[in-house]
Amino acid sequence: MQIIENFTDLTPVNVIVSILDVLLVWYVIYKLLTLIKGTKAVQLLKGLFVIIVARFATVVFGLDTLGWMLQEVIDWGFLAIIIIFTPEIRRALEQLGRGKIFQRSTSQLEDERLRLVEAMKKAVSYMAKRRIGALISIESETGLNEYIETGIKLNAEISSELLINIFIPNTPLHDGAVIVQKDKITAAACYLPLSESTFISKELGTRHRAALGLSEVTDAITIVVSEETGGISLTKNGNLYRNLSIDEFEAHLKTMWFGPEQDSDSASKWTWRGKKNG
């Protein structure tokens, strides 16, 4: 057979080159996937995959009209990808220009997270006692780059002193949210989407609505310190945990960051539906 003959004609050098070629292609694909991980591009790619699978299904089952419609979507898809993925493409080209796209990514170590939790606890405790309003969002799987673009880039190491200084009233960066990515304060004075839920208590202000709004569209963890009462709150996945003590705050933050969420009997939990437990 022709295929068998082609394999037998390969020299050891050709085999090594072919294997190296395949490995390089897979490595490039892996780095590209790593680059878009944690952004909305991942969800869009899943949608494109569904469209392609559906197109093959129309061929198998002879669904000509639906197949024509999906084919039109695929034909125009390249232009749509360029438009939709513009931020990711720009970021990839910038990293390629800086020579960072092929650097080995480092995982978030647990001891580093514990250090960050301690810094958050110290800062929140200080601000709560003095009723200094604060809004801090911690990125999880869903990227927050579109909200980072609305603020002032910092790219600074996380410390309690820096967090406190940012939210001191009447300073240039105090109004808005701080966004944390991995072990960095990426930006400050960022605008977050306000929740439009009608079930939110009227006593909650803009900071709480912004924290809930972000939790409804991303999986970010957001910390709120009330300027009026000094109360400490946490939000994630549409849930608002209010009036936390500093120890409850630390326990909730660790649970949200390290593992599945668990309700605390001593904390008030509000969902976007207006339910209250505990």
TrEMBL record:
Catalyzes the condensation of 2 ATP molecules into cyclic di-AMP (c-di-AMP), a second messenger used to regulate differing processes in different bacteria. Belongs to the adenylate cyclase family. DacA/CdaA subfamily. GO terms for biological process: cAMP biosynthetic process. It is an enzyme of class 2 (transferase). Its EC number is 2.7.7.85. NCBIfam families: diadenylate cyclase CdaA. Gene3D superfamilies: DNA integrity scanning protein, DisA, N-terminal domain (3.40.1700.10). This is Diadenylate cyclase. It comes from the Bacteria. It catalyses: 2 ATP = 3',3'-c-di-AMP + 2 diphosphate. PANTHER family: DIADENYLATE CYCLASE (PTHR34185). InterPro entries: C-di-AMP_synthase, CdaA, CdaA_N, DisA, DNA_integrity_DisA_N_sf, DNA_integrity_scan_DisA_N. The chain crosses the membrane at residues 15-36, 48-70. The keyword Transferase applies. One of its GO terms (molecular function) is ATP binding. Probably a homodimer. It holds the Pfam family CdaA_N. Residues 86-246 form the DAC domain. The keyword Transmembrane helix applies. Keywords: ATP-binding, Cell membrane, Membrane, Nucleotide-binding, Nucleotidyltransferase, Transferase, Transmembrane, Transmembrane helix.
